[in-house]
């Protein structure tokens, strides 16, 4: 057996740590950063504070904020143009997964001429991501995607009608700045949905095929942290311990999923593009169904997972029930029908789930339409 392990991202972590970021940016040779954020965060004072911090530290920043949830290739093109017009020499992305992922796609587009779908991981696009990319500092304001330490970005490509996964070690941010204070204002529903995304990353990484005990250990520990911290973070936004543990567990999830993800993410991606369900909610609803499905092939792993989830017994069924209890407790619906998914979406959902690469590392084979449909129906 041969494998390769990689945990290289530098992470600044802790309350107020954003203030420590400017010297790190200078050390990367950046003088004119493009701050990438989204419309939602622009309604808070967080981007303005960041820009003021950069200005007072001697940088000449510009801001690009025209990013929506589930960012698309047109927004990436607009951001790339802003980068060029500003003659920027680096990126500082702040927000949830959307601006962080969009910034990674902008990094590629700066010196890669082809349309984004040509760099789709499913087509072996990682081999085409070459050369020097502008440095990226990633500052999460949600505890969910872990994009600040991940080597992937998910962009909806209009022409392809689906989400394209960009994946390359070159996309790992040069620096992740994880400041829990930035997550305190996140509303309860967003805290709940993004937190379930983080849980999905850790559970899928733990259950994924492949030999990676480092990732497994990180993932299991993060599951334990989320089970305890997420209900508290949803209930009380300024619970310092809960916000700290959620941000850390979300970062841990993305470190762990270098091992791979699984069928939950393949089923969830089309639910966003076809049915408009948020990524975190789609994962939350599908996760217990997939844990039961995978538990039949991986009973031992399911037992370890059940333990981390503080389940009643060491079984996949009990693990799934713990996940449902957690979701119920933080006010999330448990069925796709309650999330507005229509029966007539099913054929399209199944076709797109099969096209998605995440299920390739699922521990139990699911690459046929019948199984994908059965999994969706299990969450109906
Ligand atoms: Fe995710």
Please name the CATH architecture of the largest domain: Up-down Bundle
Largest sheet: 6 strands, parallel
Strand order of the largest sheet: 1-8-5-4-2-3
Helix/sheet category:
alpha/beta
The hetero molecules present are: fe (ii) ion
Question: Can you characterise this structure?
Answer:
The longest helix is centred in the middle third of the chain and has 23 residues, at 213-235. Helix 6 runs parallel beside helix 10 (279-295), helix 9 runs antiparallel to helix 10 and helix 10 packs antiparallel against helix 12 (316-329). Helix 5 (97-111) links the parallel strand 4 (90-95) and strand 5. The protein is α/β, with parallel strands linked by helices and 380 residues long. It folds into two domains: 10-182, 3-Layer(aba) Sandwich (Rossmann fold); 189-378, Dehydroquinate synthase-like - alpha domain (Dehydroquinate synthase-like, alpha domain). The chain has 14 helices and eight strands. The chain has helices spanning 21-27, 39-42, 46-56, 73-86, 97-111, 188-207, 213-235, 240-256, 263-275, 279-295, 299-308, 316-329, 346-355, 369-378, and strands spanning 10-13, 33-36, 62-64, 90-95, 136-140, 152-157, 162-167, 175-178. A six-stranded parallel β-sheet has the order 1-8-5-4-2-3, sandwiched between helices. Strands 6-7 form a two-stranded antiparallel sheet. It is 49% helix and 10% strand. It starts with 9 loop residues before the first strand and ends with a helix. Fe (ii) ion binds next to helix 6 and helix 10.
